[in-house]
Structures are given as structure tokens and as C-alpha cells.
Specification:
With 653 residues, the chain is an alpha/beta fold. 32% of the residues lie in helices and 24% in strands. Bound molecules: adenosine-5'-monophosphate-propyl ester.
Length: 653
């Protein structure tokens, strides 16, 4: 929480939405969770509930002796238990006679495709686990992964899990600097990357970007490069190896050793309110339990007949939990797609749904709003009748987008699950259960069984109706175990604002039926196309440019991307830089997702008399709102000048 946080009352702009959609009789007929039995069980004893789910959904090599050890803010789940995550995602399906089941229908952007069965995925994972071992990776080590959306990304993650090494996946859109910082923070031994990948019809380079990062990553002793883009790359003798050479020569057997339930499974870096990304830590038994549980019940998974498609990138938590660990633990068949939704045409996703007869489709509101812009004629070109459920994640979904999704993608016959969660929560926390919950467009509805979520006011008192801060009231199995290398920051960031509660950083409203409506972040974290970007991080990047004296960054409401990054920049005396140059510079510093949409140059930034930049006021300027009280401003003229400039900028710039 910062001085710039809006109190929930101030973001209370949402209209009450009264349309309701109960589960259809047809859907209820064959659903895994009709009625309230899961909620009832969890209400009676939430820890016992999770213990039963864990025993039911996973294979443990050794039983745990304690379900949950909770010393606020540190939790351990299934203490004393041992399991191997990759065994749970692969071996047990193959041993159970399901080796021929398709794990992935993979679709490359240029139109090439691969079908990978569970048996094949197990074989390649074992080989790659041995490759990692040969490169000196052992239990407890970290491996960085910087790959496009190709099956090798899944193999690399599962191979780490198999040998007890933690992976740290960095989204392929991040820059060399971002990759370097993440490698160094994690002190990773090995980097797994590719020559390049396909995006919008072109090859985007990865290895050349990685090379820049590798100039300054002393912990890295080996680099494995998958050939995908076919672009020219340099290989450093002794350090760099082609994936296909190593896999071809690797021992095919790597026995899945049982690991402690609390063995570190992965780090995933996410933006917070400061300039330094946080390495969120997730461990094994609890994480796998909750991702498997939520994937099964929220998506009503029937693994023999369903084809699940989550459109996220494996570089984000959604890809970790709902492409890799949840679906594979449940033996699901999935689609994995490498590229963008508009290559070669705006109907690419609908073509893929038709081709593979996708039944469960999970995407983000920003994508849905883009599809709305492209028009209903695009999905109408294809037979989408295989779909039986739709999901949404990453940001609040506006009721119009929800209705469009239901009508034009779901053919008015699919329930929609709007799923609220975070990198830190590891798995879905607030969502309908599709066969049990009556939905309202735009509401994520209720906490899932076993989850405690409440709204509180500024003082930390519970709010039963209206706006408040979203908090979580008890530990959950897939909760983050902390921030890598900085447990004090963990306590401070999540557990210090409200006594005994995890504060998620989101505002929400409760209606009179007890439905939750997420309202977005109340801190300095922006949500651009479902990606979390910290205002401070972009400010730091701008200020790193030699021409920039000062910068203030805000997230302004944007009809397609949810929020857009707007920067206000003061240049150093005598220095010159234009908007394009600074945007490119931020791209270099952080990655293309963090480039400001618009940069305003200003001789001064609006500050309070104590020198704090007034971000809320800048947001008002960016969104063209009338300004309220500016009496605390040191220099009122700064703002009128900024307003004049904002009014001159065409809205779609
Ligand atoms: O603000 C919330 C928003 O995304 C944030 C978490 O971002 P990240 O850790 O990148 O994970 C995204 C995918 C789980 C949250 O604090 N958010 C996520 N899902 C929703 C949402 N906001 C509203 N409704 C959602 N369904």
C-alpha cells in the first residue's frame, strides 16, 4: 500500500449487474461438482478437505504426517510427505496404460504441428533430466528457461522437477537486461533457450538476446539451445550446446526420485510496487494439489474426452499452473499454440479450436476485447460447437466482454468461469464451479472450497457489502512460500497491511448476494493486457536514459488492454530525446510489454509540497478527468500545462 493507493470507494465505478446465468440442465447432467458438497466438506474442516484432495489427486511416495504447519506468514503443507512432481505429471499416466494419450496438440505459428503423447513426453523429459545432470545440475540448483511456446519448454520444466532443481522461466518477450537480472538473482547454473521463435510471421531472436545477458551472468556454466527459429546464432564452445545433440546422446532412463513436499519447484519473477521484481517461490506437494484440484473442478475436466486450451504463455503463472502442472497432473489432453492470434488471419484461434475440437477454452479479457474489435464474423467462419466451457483470467472482465464471449464464442451454451488469482496464490482462488454456481457477467463469484477471502476497509474491519480491500484469511496449499532471498520483503509486502491477513493488492466489491466483483489493483502495479508491470520499474528504466531527469508513470484505463502505460518525463537541461527513442529504451531495459503507449514531455512533474509525485492526479490527466482538489500541489501551473498537452494528443496515439 502506498500513498497513491485509491481507497476502494474511489474505484467504486462499477454498475451492479443483475443478469444471472444458472448452470444449464445439460451441463449439470455430467458435471463433476453439482450442488454444494465440496463447499460443505471444506467448510467443516478446510485442512482435512485439502488433505483428501491431495490423497485423491496425487500419488505420494511417502505419506505426510501434518497437513499444514502455519506460522504466519510461513506455511508448510503436507509436511513429511514425499512425491515427485514429474512422476505425477507423466509416469503414473504411462504406468496406468495411458501412454498413448495425447498430452499436447502443438500448433506452430507458421502452420507446422506436432502431436506429443504422454509416453513421448516422459521419454524426452527423462533424457533431458539426464542432460541437466550431465551439465552439473543437482537437487536444489536453479535452471533458467527462456523459450518460445514449444513443447521443449514443458520438457525442460518437468526435467527440472524430476531431479529437484527449481526452474525460473522468463517470458520470451523480456529483454536481455531483465533476463540477466533474473538469472543473477536466482544464481542459475544452466540456461535453456532457443535460437528464436515465431511471432507475427517473423522469427524473433532469443539466443542473441540471451548472449547479451550471458555477458554478465557468472553463475551460468552451461547453455542449451533448442533449434526452432532457424536463425543464425553464435555458440560458445564449452558452454553452449544444441538441445538435439544432447538429447540424442542422453541416457533414456532417469528414475523419478521422491522429493520432500516442500522442495522448491520453481521461482517466477513478478512485478511489485518497487523497481525490483520479486522471485516468487512455489514448492511441490501443496502447489500440485491445488493446481490439480482447481484444474479438475473449475474446468470440469473429463480427461478422456476433453481437449483443454489455455492461451497463456508458459512464461507466466497461468502457463505454469494451467498448461504444465495442473493439466498434466490430471492427465489432460491440451492444445499448445506458439504464436499470435492474428497470424495469418484474425480467425487463427477459432481455426485451431475447430481443428482440434477444443472443449475447454481459457483466455484473458484483453484478448476477448480484441476479438470483439475484430468482429463476430471471425469466429462465425468456424465450427466452435465442440466448446463446452469458457474461462477468463488476468484482469476484471467487463460485463459486455463477458456477454460477447458467451454469445459469439460459447454459442450461448457454455458456462463462463471468471477465475481470480495471482502469481503468488499459485492457483485459482475465486471462481465459479461451473456445474454449481449461478454466474453474473463480470463477477468472479465466490472463493473456491477451502479458500478464505474477505474484504476489509482501511482499518482492517470486515466489509460485508460494498467496496473494500481483498484479503485472504487462511493459508492455502499453493500459496507462495516467500520471496527468493528476501523473506522480510515477503512479510512486509503481503502480511503487514492488515493484521493476520494476506493482502492481494486488489480492490473488490461484494453485492447483496455475496458475489465478489474484482475492481483492479489499488497499488502502483499496472495491469496491461493481463501482464503485471510496476510503475516504479518503468520509471526506473526511463530515468536510466541519460537524457531523462525525472519520470512518472501511470496506468490509464484503455478499452482494449485494460490499462495503458502513460509516462510523464522531464528531460535534463540541454538534453534531447524523443518519444520513440525512450519507448525503445524501455523495451531494451525491461521488454516490449513495458513500453509506454504515450510519453508526455513536461518541464515539471506535479508534486506535493513534500515532494511526492502525485500519480493519482496524473492518472486523472491521462484519462481526461476533471481534477479534484489540487490544493496540496506545489505548482498548480504544471497540471494545467499537462492537461493542455493531453488534450492535444489524439486518443488512439
Ligand atoms: O489484479 C489481479 C489481476 O491480476 C493480478 C495478478 O496478476 P499475475 O500475478 O500476473 O497473475 C495473473 C494470472 C493469474 C491480480 O492481483 N487478476 C487476475 N485474475 C483476475 C484479476 N482481476 C480480476 N479478475 C480476475 N479474474
Amino acid at each position: 500500500m502506498t500513498d497513491n493507493a485509491s481507497p476502494p470507494g474511489a474505484i467504486d465505478a462499477l454498475q451492479w449487474e443483475n443478469r444471472r446465468f444458472p448452470p444449464s440442465a445439460a451441463f449439470k447432467n455430467d458435471t463433476l461438482a453439482a450442488g454444494t458438497f465440496l463447499y460443505d466438506e471444506a467448510d467443516a474442516d478446510y485442512q482435512g478437505f485439502w488433505a483428501r484432495q491431495s490423497a485423491d489427486l496425487l500419488d505420494w511416495a511417502k505419506e505426510w504426517h501434518t497437513i499444514c504447519e502455519w506460522e504466519l506468514p510461513f506455511a508448510k503443507w503436507f509436511v513429511g510427505g514425499e512425491l515427485n512432481v514429474s512422476f505425477n505429471c507423466l509416469d503414473r499416466h504411462v504406468l496406468g496404460g495411458r501412454g498413448d494419450r495425447v498430452a499436447f496438440y502443438w500448433e506452430g505459428e507458421p502452420g507446422d504441428s506436432r502431436v506429443v503423447t504422454y509416453a513421448e513426453l516422459l521419454d524426452e523429459t527423462q533424457r533431458f533430466a539426464n542432460v541437466l545432470k550431465d551439465l552439473g545440475v543437482g537437487k536444489g540448483d536453479r535452471v533458467n528457461i527462456y523459450l518460445p511456446m514449444i513443447p521443449e519448454a514443458v520438457v525442460a520444466m518437468l526435467a527440472c522437477a524430476r531431479i529437484g532443481a527449481a526452474h525460473s522461466v522468463v517470458f520470451g518477450g523480456f529483454s536481455a537486461n531483465s533476463l540477466r537480472d533474473r538469472i543473477n538473482d536466482a544464481e542459475a547454473k544452466v540456461l535453456v533457450t532457443a535460437d528464436g521463435g515465431f511471432r507475427r510471421g517473423d522469427v524473433f531472436p532469443l539466443k542473441p538476446v540471451a548472449d547479451e545477458a550471458l555477458a554478465d551472468t557468472p553463475s551460468i556454466t552451461g547453455v542449451v539451445v533448442v533449434r526452432r527459429g532457424g536463425n543464425e546464432v553464435e555458440m560458445e564452445a564449452g558452454r553452449d550446446h544444441w538441445y538435439h545433440d544432447l538429447i540424442g546422446a542422453a541416457d533414456p532412463v532417469c528414475v523419478a526420485e521422491p522429493m520432500d513436499s516442500e522442495q522448491l519447484l520453481f521461482l517466477l519473477y513478478t512485478s511489485g510496487t518497487t523497481g525490483k521484481p520479486k522471485g516468487i517461490m512455489h514448492t511441490s506437494g501443496g502447489y500440485l494439489t491445488q493446481v490439480a484440484f482447481t484444474h479438475k473442478y473449475v474446468f470440469d475436466l473429463h480427461p478422456e474426452t476433453d481437449v483443454f486450451w489455455c492461451t497463456a504463455d508458459v512464461g507466466w503463472i497461468t502457463g505454469h499452473s494451467y498448461i504444465v502442472y495442473g493439466p498434466l497432473a490430471n492427465g489432460a489432453t491440451q492444445v499448445m499454440y506458439e504464436g499470435v492470434p492474428n497470424h495469418p488471419g484474425n480467425d487463427r484461434l477459432w481455426e485451431i479450436i475447430e481443428k482440434y475440437k477444443v472443449t475447454l477454452f481459457y483466455t484473458a479479457p484483453t484478448a476477448i476485447r480484441t476479438f470483439m474489435k475484430w468482429g463476430a464474423a471471425e469466429p462465425e467462419k468456424h465450427d466452435l460447437s465442440s466448446l463446452r466451457l469458457l474461462g477468463s483470467v488476468g484482469e476484471p472482465i467487463n460485463p459486455e466482454a463477458w456477454m460477447w464471449y458467451q454469445e459469439h464464442i460459447g454459442g450461448n451454451s457454455c458456462p463462463i468461469v471468471d477465475t481470480w488469482w495471482q502469481t503468488e496464490t499459485g492457483a485459482i482462488m475465486i471462481s465459479p464451479l461451473p456445474g454449481a454456481t449461478t454466474t453474473k457477467p463480470g463477477s468472479a463469484t465466490f472463493p473456491l472450497p477451502g479458500i478464505g477471502a474477505e474484504l476489509v476497509d482501511e482499518q482492517g474491519d470486515r466489509v460485508e457489502h460494498g467496496g473494500g480491500y481483498l484479503t485472504l484469511t487462511r493459508p492455502w496449499p499453493s500459496m507462495l512460500r516467500g520471496i527468493w532471498g528476501d523473506q522480510e520483503r515477503y512479510r512486509e509486502t503481503y502480511w503487514s497491511r492488515f493484521d493476520g491477513r494476506y493482502f492481494a493488492g486488489d480492490g473488490a466489491k461484494l453485492d447483496s448476494d455475496g458475489y465478489l466483483w474484482l475492481l483492479g489493483r489499488v497499488d502502483d502495479v499496472m495491469n496491461v493486457s493481463g501482464h503485471r508491470i510496476s510503475t516504479t520499474e518503468v520509471e526506473s528504466a526511463l530515468v536510466a536514459h541519460p537524457a531523462v531527469a525525472e519520470a512518472a508513470v501511470v496506468g490509464a484505463t484503455d478499452p482494449t488492454t485494460g490499462q495503458a502505460i502513460i509516462a510523464y518525463v522531464t528531460l535534463r537541461g540541454g538534453a534531447a530525446a524523443d518519444e520513440q527513442e525512450l519507448r525503445a529504451f524501455v523495451g531494451e531495459e525491461i521488454g516490449h510489454i513495458a513500453k509506454p503507449k504515450t510519453i508526455y514531455f513536461t518541464p515539471d512533474l506535479p508534486k506535493t509540497r513534500s515532494g511526492k509525485i502525485m500519480r493519482r492526479l496524473l492518472r486523472d490527466v491521462a484519462e481526461g478527468r476533471n481534477l479534484g482538489d489540487t490544493s496540496t500541489l506545489a505548482d498548480v501551473n504544471v497540471v494545467s500545462e499537462l492537461q493542455r498537452r493531453a488534450a492535444e494528443t489524439p486518443p488512439d496515439d
